[in-house]
Amino acid sequence: MSQIMIKDALQQRELMTSGHLACPGCGGALAMRMVLKELGERTIVTMPACCWSVIAGPYPTASVQVPVYHTAFETGAAVASGIRAALDMRGDTDTTVMVWAGDGGTFDIGLQALSGAAERNENILYVCYDNEAYMNTGIQRSSATPWGAWTTTTPVAQPQANPKKDIMAIMAAHRIPYAATATPAYPTDLVAKVRRAKSVRGTRFLHILAPCPPGWKYADERSMELARLAVRARIFPMLEVEDGQHWRFTMDHPGDPVEPYVRAQGRFRHLDDAQIALVQERVDARWTELLGRVMN
């Protein structure tokens, strides 16, 4: 997609208003704004419990200017599947049905509904904005929380002991038509992937890294800087997967050291040099694994 086309997409009518209830510097709020700009008014959002359940604000003064269905934590993909079926019975094939869920409602509590929808290849777009913990309820760990991170349920004395769940590999195993990673720090890449997902029929999955100042413990204005550091250090690679088999990178990843990214966040403040070296080792191993998938 050309830079001019992306600029046009980002200048379209706003479908997210000012006055929303997100924290300053919220990566999830910026991601929603960009995604809605590309999807347009013919969009219905299913939103399981998450930060965005609050950010959107109450009807009739909600900040999102498309229909939003707030659902139970575990039912995002199931409700979206029902909405899609109802629209199809009415002959409406133009409206995009999107699930907008956090990592808790995707990696953990909502995984069963997401897996079921993906196995049936429901014609929905599922977007996970990943801030790597249950932020809305007080920063508890999720299976998206990185190894070594502090949360209220993984305190400094016992930090997160398990690696982050590989949600992209899980979705690829379902052989869905399209899955991709993105971040609002790279808007051209993000909008291009939303446009691609919108054009595909079947289950589509977008995994968006959404930095969280209060949860990650950094200054509000550094959100996009940290997202870029995550990509450059290969902690959060930018990629696409088609039909579960064809993996490709969509950006260059220089392989910068992970230390600046880790040191910039209070949730990792307790890690010593040896532990940061272990983070680097795990990132390098994961990158080698991804290279094998891309080459195949």
List keywords for this structure.
single chain, 296 residues, alpha/beta, Rossmann fold, eight-stranded mixed β-sheet, 12 helices, 8 strands, 40% helix
In short:
Helix content is 40%, strand content 14%.
Can you name the CATH architecture?
Answer: 3-Layer(aba) Sandwich
Give the integer mean of the pLDDT values.
Answer: 95
**Which regions contain 5 or more consecutive residues with pLDDT less than 50?**
none
- Class by SSE composition: alpha/beta
Distance between the termini: 25 Å
Q: How would you sum up the major sheet?
A: 8 strands, mixed
Report the CATH C-level class.
Answer: Alpha Beta
Strand order of the largest sheet: 2-1-3-4-6-5-7-8
How many strands?
8
Determine the fraction of residues in helical runs and give it as a percent range: 25-40%
State Rg.
18 Å
Morphology call: globular
The total domain count is 1
CATH fold-level assignment: Rossmann fold
Residue share in β-strands: 5-15%
Fourth CATH level, the homologous superfamily: Thiamin diphosphate (ThDP)-binding fold, Pyr/PP domains
Helix-strand pattern? HHEHEHEHHEHEHEHHEEHH
Molecular structure report:
The protein has helices at 3-10, 27-39, 51-55, 76-89, 104-108, 111-120, 167-173, 187-199, 213-216, 223-232, 259-263, 273-295; strands spanning 43-48, 68-71, 96-102, 125-130, 178-182, 204-209, 239-242, 246-249. The chain is 40% helix and 14% strand. Strand 1 (43-48), helix 3 (51-55) and strand 2 (68-71) form a beta-alpha-beta unit. By secondary structure, it is an alpha/beta fold. The protein is built from twelve helices and eight strands. Helix 1 crosses helix 8 (187-199) and helix 2 (27-39) crosses helix 8. The mean pLDDT is 95. The chain has one domain (3-295): 3-Layer(aba) Sandwich (Rossmann fold), CATH 3.40.50. The protein has an eight-stranded mixed sheet, sandwiched between helices.
